[in-house]
Amino acid sequence: MEWRGFAYIGLWYLSIASGFLVLCCPMTPLMFACPQVFRYAIGVVHSAWEMYPTILMRLLFKTRFVVTGDLINPLDGALLIMNHRNRLDWNFLWAGMYYGTEPKAHKLKMVLKSAIRHVPFAGWVMQMSGFLYIRRRWDHDQSSMADQLEYFKNVNDTNQILLFPEGTDLSRGNVERSDKYAEQNGFPKYAHVLHPKTTGFVFLTDIMKKNKQIDAVYDLTIGYPDSIPQNELDALCGVFPRNVHFHIKRYGVSELPKSAEGLKIWLMDVWRQKETRLADFAATSSFVRDPTSVNDNNTPTHNALYLAFLFWTLIEFIAVYGLVTSTLFRFWCLFCCVVFVGLSFVDDGFQMLEVKLYNYTRNPKKKPA
After folding, report:
1. Angle, to 10 degrees, between the axis of helix 138-154 and the axis of helix 350-362?
2. If 340 and its partner were Cys, which of 124, 183, 258, 294 is the partner (CB 3.0–4.6 Å)?
3. 3 state SS of 113
4. CA-to-CA distance for 231 and 85, rounded, in angstroms?
5. What are the residues whose beta carbons fall under 8 Å from the beta carbon of 86, sequence distance 6 or more?
6. Given this model, what pLDDT does residue 298 score?
7. How many domains does one find in the chain?
8. Residue 43 contacts by C-beta under 8 Å, 6 or more apart in sequence?
9. What is the residue range of 94's domain?
């Protein structure tokens, strides 16, 4: 174990737990009184937190983030699709979104496996942030995602929703399964990506079009020219990349095919291009040949990142001090944890409770039978 890896994971997790207890849970009454304000406030907290792991990586590991291609417009309602090289891609994504968005503000939510919502604090915060959890039971998943997207529309919450079409990371076993699938269907074998699953992408694109929630699809490609941490244990041991590259391509909604079959073929073609792009990247350690097109303005580190570091360090101090000195705060922490353990296992999670509450109180047509 390396001290920088231990410090990063420890501070990262402490910031999540502290933000959950000190900031997010006290905002819960807003969900009953004014869901629009609640959704906005939680979005602000989450966006502010995303800068914290970015500054930690900059300070502890001097990690450099290189962004090429298009910049993300934070005012776009958008679907983001990205390759899934390792289990920590989403962690580096926060920095990619920070440096790849102009102006530097966004409301990113992810489509994740349902089991992740049970992770103490991290899974609970993502529930409160409105992440879309799926159980891999399609009837259930499409219903819950449709309900959440309709809720976001009703409360005027514009989002960028990230989907990993591959569904899992590029481990050896997953590559073998992808190759077997390619053989059975007459597809080429890939070395740098897995064959994408198209059902979720087609569904999300279609429902977001119907709801007028999508202005663009952003294709993100992540590449690591040096060290690649495959899992959380690698990160704990201090295996961090010195450089992380993102290439972003924006497709306006008018450029997308109209039919479901057309969207399926379109996604598969994007992944073929991604395989080629990553093969070139493996040979050159760059997504572009023209160095002037590289957005490498993250040195020196922006003042906003230092402010985020100070803010979240203060929140961590408040939480730890409260746990040590205040019985009332300890009871508050216990109460919040018990409630979210119950919500995680008894129901579909806080994010669906929020949707059901809104439908029951403000949308009579959606009241449960």
Report:
1. 60
2. 124
3. strand
4. 10
5. 169, 170, 228, 229, 230, 231
6. 47
7. 1
8. 107, 129, 157
9. 3-366
Separation in Å, CA 335 to CA 21, 176, 338: 10, 45, 5
Q: Are 48 and 311 in contact (CB under 8 A)?
A: yes
Length of the chain measured in residues: 369
Could you give the angle at which helices 199-210 and 260-284 cross, rounded to 10 degrees? 120
Q: In whole angstroms, what is the distance from residue 290 CA to residue 268 CA?
A: 27
Residue 212 CB coordination number (10 Å)? 10
Contact status, residue 169 vs residue 89, Cβ threshold 8 Å: yes
Pairing of strands 108-113, 160-163: parallel
- In Å, the largest CA–CA distance within the chain is 64
Residue 218 CB partners (closer than 8 Å, separation 6+)? 70, 72, 76, 78, 79, 80, 81, 160, 248, 249, 250, 251
Classify strands 78-82 and 108-113 as parallel, antiparallel or unpaired.
Answer: unpaired
Picking from 107, 165, 160, 103, the residue whose alpha carbon sits closest to that of residue 134 is: 165
Residue 302: CA count within 13 A, CB half-sphere: 15
The token duo for 57 is 């990586």
Angle subtended at Cα 130 by Cα 112 and Cα 64, rounded to the nearest 5 degrees: 65
